[in-house]
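Final report, closing paragraph on structural work. Over the funding period we assembled a curated collection of sequence-structure pairs, and we close with a single example.
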Amino acid sequence: MTASLPAPTSRPRVLIVGCGFGGLAAVQRLSRADVDVTLVDRTNHHLFQPLLYQVATATLSAPAVSAPIRHVLRRQIRRGNLTVLQGEVADVDAASRCVRLADGGRLDYDHLIVAAGATHSYFGHDDWAAVAPGLKTLADAFDIRARVIGAFERAERCEDPAARQAWLNFVIVGAGPTGVELAGAVVEIARHTLADEFRRIDSRQARVVLIEGSPRVLGAFDEALSDSARRQLERLGVEVRTGCRVTAIDADGVSYQDGEASEHLPAHTVLWAAGVAASPLGRRLAATTGATVDRAGRLEVLPDLSLPGHPEISVIGDLANAYSFRDPATRERPAAAAPGAGQDAAPNPHDPRPVPGVSPAAKQMGRTAADNLLARLRKAPTRAFRYRDYGSLATIGRKAAVVQLEAPVFGHLKWSGFAAWLFWLFAHVFFLIDFRSRVIVLFHWAWAYWTFDRHARVIAEPATPLDAAAPPPPDTKPAA
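Its predicted structure, as stored:
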């Protein structure tokens, strides 16, 4: 089967895979160029992932953080050189310059930009995925919401105190921004949103445990901010356990190693925020191009974000193991560190630095890949990617957040608490995809702030794993 496309033209054909932050930025950059652009994504919506955890924890509804791709790009579509297709790319044939879709369709290209994103990594324990879902898509968010809200419903049905507490224990594995944000939100649900809504349980007795393998939470942040984040989490009621290695997860709970001691925490709701792996498409692309991938499945790209030996293919976002080149004259990736070299040595300011897997980086990579593509069409030299790091933000809960910024005049700024929380709110509203989303999000946040209500906690049906483990209602008998 062949995908439906407009009549061919003499213009170069550019295919973009994925409509995340990077793919969207590339489309917008190329929309006025004399090229034919085809954008293919397996969903029909662009997702603002930084606020996805608020869909999972019932603060926001799905339309507040997502929008149909065709609506977002309606102006570009009207210009006549953009085609948007829904489909899942299954493979790439670099020799024939085409991609193959999961339904058997084929899309040809002259230039390819791959922004397929990332998925969850369970570090070799893929069986944990069934009982410890991660958070990358709207479907993940709906699943987590059903599990969290459903856990309180199951606890209401329990007669045995120990069985009830297992439903009221919530474990989040991984204390990066997503884990910290989930932990703070679940505490607020238990302490405020659901308080006094149950007859047989007190939702405020719920325990939220955040487990992290490294010595501190938010390890990518300044150490002082990391310490502040931990204190704010503990004030909210989160139990923070750092330096702990998870050894097993099943339907009954989590086992972990804390130093020399082995611990088991009974819990039916475990959320995974500890590992990220590149899309499986990365390895397929490596097989057809001869490119190499790192342990996370990310493709090693050249300074201009193209693949070695394939200047017509660029890889951006979470799928690329990219470096930022501060000195425009620098064109080489850094050599591996010598054995025994100290990690605290002062860096050369002109050395390339790894690009973090965050949305601002993906946007900048999308624009750079598009600019370099147009430069190739003009027979002009391409430029090395330079990531401009404007800082990092993470919210912890109500009136609690941490912010570190690089300001042009004031240099390195960092602060935490209520002022950081306000900054986080307005920064995320500013970067939302459209005006409608900004209005919706502001309204829901204002309402939730004053009332603690989370009306988005309606769920279509309980998560299947919880149904399977749920005890029968106290007034019923098991079927014979």
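Residues 254 and 265 are 5 Å apart (CA to CA). Residues 334-349, 468-480 have pLDDT under 50 and may be disordered. We thank the funder for supporting this effort.
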